[in-house]
Every structure is written in C-alpha cells, then in structure tokens.
Specification:
Layout (H helix, E strand, L loop, with lengths): L4 E12 L2 E12 L3 E5 L6 H8 L7 E6 L2 E2 L4 H10 E4 L11 H11 L5 H14 L15 H13 L5 E5 L7 H16 L3 E5 L3 H7 L2 E6 L2 E6 L1 H6 L4 H10 L1
Parallel strand pairs: 3-8, 3-9, 6-7, 7-8
Antiparallel strand pairs: 1-2, 1-4, 4-5, 9-10
The structure holds adenosine-5'-diphosphate and magnesium ion (MG).
C-alpha cells in the first residue's frame, strides 16, 4: 500500500554476538504513514528503531531514507538524526539546560539557525505541545509527561521527515500517558510519518495505518490494526494479544 516510500528496510540482518536480533527485516514506511511496532520484550523493536536512526549498525541489507542509503558518519549522520527524530522512553533532556534551550540547541548546532530564530520556533512548538509557560524551567521541575512533550517538541524543531518513538509512555505514571498520546495523535493526524513502538493498543487502533508485530527478531505480521486486532494470524501474535488485552 505504501505509495510513496520514505523509509525502506531490505533484508536487514544484525547480531549481538550469537543473538540474531534482526532477521531478514523488510519494512516500508510510506510518507505520512503511522506504523505501530508491537511485540514481546526482547523481540528487537528498539534495535529496529535504533538501526533506522543509525544508533546501531547493520551487518547486511539496506536501509534507505527518501531513496538514499543512511550516511555512516560526520555531518551527514548528524543531519540524518535531525531528519529522523527519535523520542525515547527516558526523555533524554539536558538536565542543566532550560526547556527552551533543550528545544533550541540542535536547531542552532545542526540546522545552523540563529539563536533568536531557534528560540522563536521552540516557543511555537512548546505552545503546540501545551507547555508555553514552562520554557524557562529546568527538566527536573517538570512532570514526566511534560518532559516527554518537551522531547517531542525538540524532535519537531528540526523539521524532521519522520519521527521514531520507542515506548514513549512506558516510563510515565498512568495519569500522564494520555497527554503524550494526544500530542502523538495530533501529529499523526497532521500527516507526520511515524514509527511508534508502544503497547498502547488504543493508540494503535486509532492512529496506526499498520501494525507490525515482531517476535524473536522477525516481523511476523504487518497488517492494518483492524485486521491485526480482530484476527491475528500467527500463534505468537494470538498469544501476545491474549496477555495484554
Ligand atoms: P525490544 O525493544 O523488543 O525489547 P531490543 O531490541 O531492545 O528488544 O533487544 C533485542 C535483544 O537484543 C534482547 O535480547 C536484548 O537483550 C539484546 N540486546 C539489545 N541491545 C544489545 C546490546 N547492545 N548488546 C547485546 N545485546 C543486546
Ligand atoms: Mg525496547
């Protein structure tokens, strides 16, 4: 269905020692598509995300962004990480910088924007994620849900082509999960290309174009949420869903 491929993985393989963590992975993410990746712990979901952002190298196969192979190093690699933003479970904000500085920093360093221009964009994005009043605070003064929304604003500030989310709500107290999912829902509705590792099935059902189910380093199913949730095909997926739903 992916008419206009933005991210493509072809026959991707990777080992950690004896562990074959990514096994012949083939995945296409179309421009504007939202792909939710689910699967048991240890199935390779984080490694998959990290490979797309080149935080992990692969041993064979190809990964392309916009038809071009991922750059290996240097300025091109920094640009890739800006083009494909990543939001982690553990926010990863700079503790000694204000919220505003956290969102502006890479815009200045990587996108070469002037400070005033970067700060202006940062304030717009902080407003968009509901944090207009928090710009001068430090991360530790914010709740987990607020910090994660800062991390999303920081990724958006780079004008990314795609965003990767690796269990963005897993470290949050339950009452903060929705405020982060709502921002993600809004991005999805605006046409942002997203790969989202999550166990939030409500989000998968309402925002995903496709659900990719991974187990033991393999993509076992790649289908619409409707098809996946109502009639999973594999025993692995049936077993997984029976445990989480
Ligand atoms: P998931 O995100 O689905 O839980 P991961 O991609 O984090 O899975 O990990 C897949 C497997 O690879 C796990 O068994 C994990 O222990 C292993 N693994 C992940 N990162 C490393 C690493 N840097 N070195 C060795 N093994 C790793
Ligand atoms: Mg993981």
């Amino acid at each position: 269905m992916a008419v206009d491929p933005l991210i493509e993985l072809r026959d991707v393989n990777k080992h950690f020692g004896q562990l074959h963590v990514l096994q012949d992975i083939n995945l296409t993410v179309g421009r504007g598509e939202v792909v939710v990746v689910i699967g048991p712990s240890g199935s390779g979901k984080s490694t998959l995300c990290r490979a797309i952002n080149r935080l992990e190298t692969i041993e064979s196969g190809t990964i392309t962004l916009d038809g071009k192979p991922l750059p290996a190093e240097g300025k091109e690699l920094a640009a890739l990480r800006a083009d494909v933003g990543m939001v982690f479970q553990s926010f990863n904000l700079f503790a000694h910088k204000t919220v505003l500085a956290n969102v502006s920093l890479a815009q200045i360093k990587v996108r070469k924007r002037k400070k005033e221009e970067a700060d202006k964009r940062s304030r717009e994005l902080l407003e968009r994620v509901g944090l207009a009043n928090q710009a001068e605070k430090f991360p530790a003064q914010l709740s987990g849900g607020q910090q994660q929304r800062v991390a999303i604003a920081r990724a958006l500030a780079m004008n990314p082509k795609a965003l990767l989310f690796d269990e963005p709500t897993s470290a949050l107290d339950p009452e903060m999960i929705n405020e982060v999912l709502e921002v993600m829902q809004q991005l999805a509705a605006e046409g942002m290309t997203m790969v989202v590792v999550t166990h939030e099935m409500g989000f998968a059902r309402s925002a995903a174009n496709r659900v990719v189910f991974m187990a033991d380093g393999k993509i076992v199913e790649d289908r619409t949420p409707e098809a996946f949730f109502t009639a999973p095909e594999s025993d692995r997926a049936k077993d997984f869903l029976s445990k989480i739903l």
